[in-house]
Amino acid sequence: MKIKLDRTICDGFGLCAVHAPETFSVDEWGYVSLAGAGNVAPEHERGVRRALLDCPVHAITELQPVEDAPRELTR
């Protein structure tokens, strides 16, 4: 699983850091940062999925794997 955090819309509720503290951290102003490049280890997916669902401003997005991405039609 790979995720992206849009810090421009994060309002600092911090629910993601509660559900997945190994993936999200909160700075001194209450805003969230993503640990690493957004790659989520399988053992942390459950907490991250809960964070995705509970984010009130939808600042966290699950990225679609490249092999599953829709392909353009060519002529």
UniProtKB/TrEMBL annotation:
InterPro entries in UniProt: Fe-S_cluster_ET
Keywords: 3Fe-4S, Electron transport, Iron, Iron-sulfur, Metal-binding, Transport
Pfam families linked to this entry: Fer4_15
Keyword Transmembrane helix part of the UniProt annotation: no
Membrane-spanning intervals of the chain: none
Superkingdom assignment: Bacteria
Cofactor entry: [3Fe-4S] cluster
Full protein name: Ferredoxin
Organism: Phytohabitans kaempferiae
